[in-house]
Amino acid sequence: MPWLRRKRLSADLPPCWPQGVARVLLDTVNSTNAYAALLSPNVPTWILAAEQSGGRGRRGRPWLSPRGNFYATLALQPIETPDLVALRSFAAALALRDACIAVTGLTVGFALKWPNDVLLNGGKLAGILLESTGAGQRITQLSIGIGVNLIAAPNADEVEQGAVVPVSLLSETGIRVTPEAFLTALANAYEKWEAVYAAKGFAPLRSEWLLHAAKLGETITARIGDTSDVGVFQTIDETGALILQTLQGRRAIPAAEIFF
């Protein structure tokens, strides 16, 4: 099984690494989410790979994985019900934005696209993929996979027609950041938002996410399979669902592909 071939790059933790959080650094792996599924960590564990041979995004789409970009997964063992566990995608999105600001020193240009992308200057910089294992109303492990175009992005003709054009951090800002440095910033940012979620629930995450939401108050298209709904993006509700005001009325959309 070639995707199990791996090389630990480092066993040392940076001095500013969050306490109680583990880190695994790999050279080549099929995907960090696939690797995380093999673990049963007793503590939150970040898995970072220099390269993925089978990276994937939402709906099984391939995620191109050249060296120098960021491919990581946070493996958790949550105790909440599946609906509450899934809200951690918003914690991850907020942490991603904070990490981008931390490594660049820039405070403008970064926006959050529902449900799980981070944009830079209107282009897609990063994506998040949540996968879980368990049965019924019990999730035994959550994997939060994150990909960031640090130095390279796919060409526009390599993505779905109408999708947001990918960009890289380097091309948009001229700043080169290593995956290891980005991981440290992200791990600390996520630790902050996880603590907020644990202490106060989804409400503060929702409020902060909406402050940075792309196309809020504008007309967008929500596509589910072959069905599309066009309307004004009004907000997200307490479950994280998109609230769209259409000609047929107000709709709550729990999952969809968004185009604008």
From TrEMBL:
- Give UniProt keywords alphabetically: Biotin, Ligase
The keyword Ribonucleoprotein appears for this protein:
no
Residue ranges annotated for the BPL/LPL catalytic domain, each copy included? 19-198
User: Which reactions appear under catalytic activity for this entry?
Assistant: biotin + L-lysyl-[protein] + ATP = N(6)-biotinyl-L-lysyl-[protein] + AMP + diphosphate + H(+)
Q: Does Glycoprotein show up as a keyword for this record?
A: no
Output the Gene Ontology terms for molecular function. biotin--[biotin carboxyl-carrier protein] ligase activity
What's the EC number here?
Answer: 6.3.4.15
What is the protein name stated in its UniProt record?
biotin--[biotin carboxyl-carrier protein] ligase
> What is the organism of origin for this protein?
Pseudorhodobacter antarcticus
For this protein's source organism, the top of the classification is:
Bacteria, Pseudomonadati, Pseudomonadota, Alphaproteobacteria, Rhodobacterales
